[in-house]
Amino acid sequence: MSDLHNHYPVVVIGGGQAGLAMSAQLKARGIAHVVLEKNTIAHSWKTQRWDAFCLVTPNWQCQLPGFPYAGSDPHGFMLRDEIVSYIEDFARHIDAPVREGVAVTRLRQSGRGFMLDTTLGEISADSVVLAVSGYHVPKVLPFADRLDPSVTQIHSSAYRNPDQLPPGEIFVVGSGQSGCQIAEDLHLAGRKVHLAVGSAPRCPRFYRGRDAVDWLDDLGQYDLPVDKHSLKEGVRKNANHYLTGRDGGRDIDLRKFALEGMKLYGRLKDGRGTRLQLGDDLQVNLDNADRVYNGICRMIDEHIARNKIAAPVTPHYEPVWSPTAVPTELDLAASGISSIIWTTGFRSDWSWVDLPMFDGTGYPTHKRGVTSVDGAYVVGLPWLYTWGSGRFVGIGRDTEFVADHIEERSSASHSGAYQAGQREQYAAREAV
């Protein structure tokens, strides 16, 4: 079986930041394990981010276990290649037992443990940790294959830079973090951009003298457990706020882009050939995003007032542009649009996990990463436990909790096995 053993106390599936953080916690407890990564460490950061990609949270939030950001710009925003280096350096720092190029093709229960089919053969484990995020398969709208083949279509995960697209105007579908940042990337490069705006909220970059993330951290927002959130587990379906760390960080204001020539529309509803059908909800979507933005500002204002903090006064956002006569139909050919970028997210694919641990929507049922199947765990999911769970700042706490549970389960198992052995010896003596 090449360099894999037949059995491990723990198998961690996934070699990104979540899997590596899990490895660090297990090593700290002396728990033997292996990390299986079907590609390479930090693969998605290397291959599914565009050239100008950077963090939207400040560098100081990079808090992998025992390996905080140590650079000279804690309030800056690492670029893609710097993020990759940070993760790879962490893997070397903890000497993670990672086996790259080993895919798990099936995971199932076997006796009191688990059996894993891998590309190097079959192995067993007492416990398994799925550190594979929830973003597995690029998602596009179902009518994408009905659009004219002369129009280039790519998913955001395949976008690298404006030069990879053919001449002509570009239609970006979706206004979440990726959609807004890619639209900005194209806009700054002088490309004519059309953007279908959805319901994603937005957040100020800087407010009252500090990065809004700093204020929100002081307010405990990244530590708020999912069960204390007003939406409970429903918050896991929410889109992230859009803003950017580009060029030192700034707001993303779609209204300002419109003043500069970007064409904004409501949500994309349907399409065929070269014609698109669009919603009439642009004004509502922009207003709602601004409402969230100013709501965050008010929250910070209240915190400042309550704690008598000296901070400069900053006005709340006032719209700089409002849509008028927004079309609900668009002809790509007549508009000179040659490309579509789908920034419509990903769907999960847990088809290889043959365990009864999913709800009716296909989401793993768990509490703080401890699933409904004894010995099976998940880490690295957005809002696994808090808002910080899907970020570098929260993964240490989540993996610490899971590692403690694995350690307790292992101790209980060994204790049970010892007691069972003692009973067998006693029974044998009585039979003599």
From TrEMBL:
Database matches in Pfam families: Pyr_redox_3
Q: Does the keyword Oxidoreductase apply?
A: yes
Q: Where is this region: Disordered?
A: 413-432
Keywords on record: Oxidoreductase
InterPro entries documented for this protein: Auxin_biosynth/cation_transpt, CHP04046_FMN-dependent, FAD/NAD-bd_sf
Q: From which domain of life does this come?
A: Bacteria
Protein name per the record = MSMEG_0569 family flavin-dependent oxidoreductase
Species source reads Bradyrhizobium campsiandrae
Top-down, what is the taxonomic lineage of the species of origin?
Bacteria, Pseudomonadati, Pseudomonadota, Alphaproteobacteria, Hyphomicrobiales
